[in-house]
Structures are given as structure tokens and as C-alpha cells.
Amino acid sequence: MKTFLFTLLTALFLLQPARANAAGWVDEVIGWFSELFAEPSRAAVVATAPTVNIDSLRSTPLGILLNRIPSSDTLAVRYNWPFASADARGEVARYERLLRQTILLTDPTNKLPLSADAVRVIYQPGHRPGYFLDLLARFTDVQEVVFSDLVADVLKVSPALPTVILVDDAQFTGTLPWYLELGGAADQQTTVVHFGPVDRLAGVPGDWSVINCPLRSKESEAFLAQALVGAELIDARLSTTTPAFAAGAGFRLTGDRTGFRLPEQLGVDREELEKIDYQINRGIRYRAMPGAQLLVMKGGQVVYEKAYGHQVYRKQAVNNADLYDLASVTKAASTSLAVMKLYDRGELALKKRVRDYLPEFKRNLVGRYRIDQLLSHHTGLQPNLPIGPLISRQFTADESSPEYPYPLGPGKWLGREIPGAVKNALTGQLEYTKKPMHQYSDLNYYLLQLIVERVSGESLDEFVRANFYAPMGLRRLTYKPNATFPAHRIVPTIDEPWMRGGLLRGDVHDEGAALLGGVGGHAGLFGNAHDLGQLFQLLNNRGSYHGKEYLRPETVALFTGHGPYNYRALAFDRLAGRWGGAHEYGVSTNTIGHLGYTGTSVWADPDNDLVYVLLTNRVNPDPTNAKFREMAIRSHVSRVVYRALDTWEVNS
């Protein structure tokens, strides 16, 4: 009976679907049982397995688990920012005091800050640093390792990753501290973060980095996670000599990367920002949208990041890592940036016409329009792509094949000839005005997509990924997210069974972008609020991000400045032109951004060094639901954000 029970439990464990963010085997075993009775968290590696031949670990199920690099799903963070607090003033004081007392005791040259795509974190059982892991996971993938006697052996057959060892007030009782057992196994790029008196640090290998903080708290965990990746400054010195370090020891660890700050540190009273919660929760309560993400950045730092509600009504709470269908925000976050990059390179001129880049339209209506007219929606072309005749089930199949390669919805695939048919439709009868005039049109940005792809020789999605998203570390901005993200991390939009096959989750809602294979100049981009906010901080920074120039300042000024034809900027919407009461609340006339049909929005105000993002899926399950617009949720959010600026000094 015992043999049967053991065999049954082992089989059930091995048949469990592998979690994308799992990092080891014991948490897979212990956690498999314990999660029945406790709140689940990201899986951690715990090496307490029976002794086995080290050389054989790689080929066993255990070895496979140990060698699994964490995936991007580790970014499913547990907390909002700032962390819940009943005493903001005390939290700010504690954060700043502990930061002043935190010392980098070793030379960080070529070691810190960490820049790897994944980092290993080792800590003692019962001491999981939840806040530290949560903040670190917003910058990189995290492999958790709970220390035990076998960790050193396990690491010998694990991937070589930069390693952070968290130590709580190591006590010396005649034996070596536990973490020194890892000296011959941990990656050379290892950092010990010690919480406690600095004089208790001794015997650390000379090639390891050492950081000491006097107290472990949620505040110190938060700023240390950021300091390790260059998002917080450490610059203290040791005041007295210890057995391992001389007085005056200490090195500067720069913090020039965008990170997270308590709102009060940037002059914002969090109680004022929390008034946004009422507006968003009210919208959820009255079924204007199932849920939302909000991000507010001030001075290049995140001061407020929060997830609300559910992905669909009453099912699966929204996480700050979830991806939303950005709809027409794609125009600003993809196509406009691509055009700016080509202009920056001298490969595209604003006064040239469509026919200069797409000669097949030389004798066609659309060939006559200039690039700056397309950007500004000043052509008078019809609002939508000419796709009416192509919206038919006859162009779909229930299985993928070379003839039906494009995913259209759950169990539905689009014929390979359809994207070309959309382009061919531009040679037919189009609606237009006799003289160019302002009329918002997806067709303008589809034409820009064709031009970008012709000039660059790359598809639009590959071009923006290679030139912006990937080098900026924005892994959560992407077209066709189903290819790289698990379904539960993508927020669904409409439920359309007729042609699309049902509930759309990761397949673009916009019909035009769907018929283009999922990549459109006007729609198709997915993302979360955090990465979208970082992208627009690039514009506030006049084209630079983390010390690297992506666009020349002159290019940013030209494309974000007041356009030549209408109220819009050359390549973006302008908040002051869209919202009549903007000036009353301090909105700069230079605030640019965009809205999306699915209930999305992003705004960047360079004069106030402010970026804020609101993402919703208000089209779920019914796109005709008008409550989101009628309740003016986006306007209310904008008003609260601006009213919260510069309130901390007044109220303190």
C-alpha cells in the first residue's frame, strides 16, 4: 500500500503542468502540498532532495527543473506601489534613513549594477524577502532558491546566473555563516546583502560584492532591489573599523535608471493620488469596465502603480504584469516612433508623398498625400480600412496550415492572401474629401506602416522591437502576445463567435489589424501600463532613456510640438486640445499621448515631467457599452493626477 501511494503521488506531481516561473524541484514537491492550504506565491528552488549523483542531475526530471531559467511570467508581481501603509510620513522617514545607512563595501566595477536578463536570489527558509523579490521582478526575471545543505551541489549543475544572497543578521557561534558554504558553487558575480550590524560580516569571498543595511524592512527591501539594478543610489561610508572592513570603506553605486519612489519623495501626497481609486472602482462597480491598470510617473520615477478589478467580470484579478490590447495607442507607441526613427536617420522626409515611397500608388488617390499629413490625420480619408468585403468566414479555417497561417481568434485562422487583399483594396473606391482636412483615420497609419516597412526592409513589429522595445528592456510591449506570453497574463477583449471563434485573448480586437495578420500601424500592440509609461518617458527625456539616445532631441521636439494642420501634435494627440478644462488643472500645452478604443490612454507632460497611463478592457464583453465614456473615467483620472502634484509640501 505504501509503495502504491508513493507511486501515485509521484506520478501526480510529475504530471502537473510546468509553471513558467518555476525555478526548482523541492518547492514543486513541498509547495504542491502546501499550496493546498496556503496562499500561492512564485515557486522557489529548495534543494532538500535525496542525495543523487551530481553528474546525472541534468538528465533527470529533477535536473530539468533545476536548470529551468525563469520566464517573463515571474513579472506577475504581487504588490501595488507604494506598498500599503498607515503612516506615510514614517514610511518616508524610514526609507530615507535606512538608505543613508546602507553601504556598498566592495568595488562595484564590472559587477554592479546587475544587467542580466535573470537573477538568482538565495535566502534562508522562513525568511522569504517578498518585497525585495517583488521589486526586483519588475526589472528582471528572478529565480528563487531557498537555502539548504544541498544548495551548493545543486548550483553546480544549474545555469550560471548573477546571484544575490540575502542574509538576516548572521550570528557567529563558532561555525561559518550558512552562506559561506556557497563559496565554491555560486556564480562569481555574487552579491551578499546583509541586514544587521556590519561588524558581523566576515569571511566573505574576496570576489563577492557586499552590501550592508542595518535593518530589514519593506522600505529597505524595496530600495535594495532597485539599487542592485541601478535604479537607486547608494553612497554611504563606514564610520568605524570592523574585523573585515576599515573605517571609511564604501563605494558609490549609481542610480540613474528609472525606478520606484514613494510619492512623497516627489512632492505628491499619496492620499491625493488615492482619490483615483474611487473613480476607477466606481467604473468597475457600474460595469463600465471589468478592471484596469494605472501608472503614474513623476520625475522619471514610478510613484503610483496599481491594478484594479478583474480581467473579466468577477474572474481572475488584474495583475500589474498583465497585457492589455492597446488599440489605437499603437499609433503613438509604435508607428509614430518608427517614423521618427527613420526621419532621424535621414531615410524619410515629411514633405515627401506616399507615392515617393510606394510607387505602386503613383496613379492612385492615396499616393498624393504627404507624410506629415498622414501623421496629423489631415488627409480627409475615410476613418476605417476598406475591409468590408473581407469580413467573412469564407476566409477562415478551423486549423492552422500554410494556407491559413494567421491566428484570428480561438480556433480560427486567417487565409494567407488576406493581408495582401487589404492593401489591394486601397486601389479601389475610397471615401475622401475634395481638399485635405482633419479627419481621424486608421487608413493614414496603415499607409505609414507600409512606408516604414518598405523603407526599413523590416516588418513594423520587428522594427520597433529592435529599435525601441528590446534595447529599452520593455518586454511587455509586443504585437501578437500569444506567441510569447501565457494566456492568463493577457486580458481579453470582446467575445465574437461568428468569425473570430469566441473570446479574444491575445488576438487583436481591431478587425483591420486582425485581417493584416495581427500587426497594424493603427492597432495590434499589446502592453502593460508600466512598460508603456517607460516608453513615453523617453519622450519626456527628449529621446534618451537610461543614458542612451534613441532619438535626437530635435526630432522629438519636431514630432511632439504643435502640428502644422490642426490641434494635434505632428505625430501624437494633444491632451490640451482634447480636454477643454485641461489648463484649469495645470495640464501643459505640450502634453502628448493617445487614446485607444478598448479603453486605454497614455499621456506624457514634459513640462511637469509627468507620465500617466490608464489601461482598461471596457469592450469586454460588449464593445457597445458606452458607460466608460459616459462616466468620463479618463478625464476624472487626469484631473486627480494633476491635482495631486506638489501637494506633499502643502499638507506636511
UniProtKB/TrEMBL annotation:
<dbReference type="Pfam" id="PF00144">
    <property type="entry name" value="Beta-lactamase"/>
</dbReference>
<dbReference type="InterPro" id="IPR001466">
    <property type="entry name" value="Beta-lactam-related"/>
</dbReference>
<dbReference type="InterPro" id="IPR050789">
    <property type="entry name" value="Diverse_Enzym_Activities"/>
</dbReference>
<feature type="signal peptide">
    <location>
        <begin position="1"/>
        <end position="22"/>
    </location>
</feature>
<keyword id="KW-0732">Signal</keyword>
<keyword id="KW-0378">Hydrolase</keyword>
<protein>
    <submittedName>
        <fullName>CubicO group peptidase (Beta-lactamase class C family)</fullName>
    </submittedName>
</protein>
<feature type="domain" description="Beta-lactamase-related">
    <location>
        <begin position="287"/>
        <end position="624"/>
    </location>
</feature>
<dbReference type="InterPro" id="IPR012338">
    <property type="entry name" value="Beta-lactam/transpept-like"/>
</dbReference>
